[in-house]
Amino acid sequence: MRAMVLSECAKIETNPLKSTNIDKHQIERPNEVLLKIAGDGSCSVPLAPTDDSRLIALVARLAAAGLEADLSVLYSVYQENETGLHGIFYHGSVTGDAPKGYGYFKISKLPLDRITDTAERSMLARYAHEASQGNFGIYQGDQSSGTVHRTVGREPSKL
After folding, report:
1. Residue 130 belongs to what domain range?
2. 3-state SS record for 36-87
3. Helix or strand run (H / E) with residue 156
4. pTM greater than 0.85
5. 1 pLDDT tier (thresholds 50, 70, 90)
6. What CATH number corresponds to the domain at position 80?
7. Of 27, 69, 96, 134, which one has the fewest beta carbons inside 10 Å?
8. How wide is the angle at C-alpha 89 spanned by C-alphas 59 and 52, nearest 5°?
9. 57-94 residue pLDDT tens
10. Based on the structure, what is the number of domains in the chain?
């Protein structure tokens, strides 16, 4: 199974020891994407705890909800110009049933009209297109424009 995560970090500080993280994450399994569903029906990628926004905290939150996630492949890095936040999406794997307040959606039928965040909606639309082609790249840019770097495979580091 495959998965994806968005990680947003706070504005970059001149002293990196002062920076804080705010993470939002989205998980996907074969032909489906796990989204958080708000009370009003809007959707977003799952969120890491606000008091600990590290990727490992999201994985722990998902485990507590009965999901096993391995989020290990970089998918997208971007900066939101309006907020100054940086986002990082990861591609990986997840197993388990959708917990309460979440739902799996077919990649070909993602509820893009219910995704309130413009950058998330754009990333999910690109993901759906790339999934239909079976050819994924790594996005680098801002929330509205950038470059998709195509990958050709992976191999272990020789260091």
Report:
1. 3-150
2. EECCCCCEECCECCCCCCCHHHHHHHHHHCCCEEEEEEEEEEEECCCCCCEE
3. none
4. no
5. very low
6. 3.90.79.10
7. 134
8. 40
9. 888 988 999 999 888 778 888 888 887 777 777 777 78
10. 1
Q: Per the domain annotation, does 119 fall within a domain?
A: yes
Contacts 24+ apart (CB under 8 A), 79-82: 79/141, 79/142, 79/143, 80/8, 80/119, 80/142, 80/143, 81/142, 81/143, 81/144, 82/143
Question: Position 151: which residue type?
Answer: T
**pLDDT reading at 20 higher than 80:** no
156 domain residue, yes or no:
no
| 125 within domain boundaries | yes
The confidence score (pLDDT) of residue 15 equals 33
In a domain, 155, yes or no: no
Reading the block at residue 123, the tokens are 């990333």
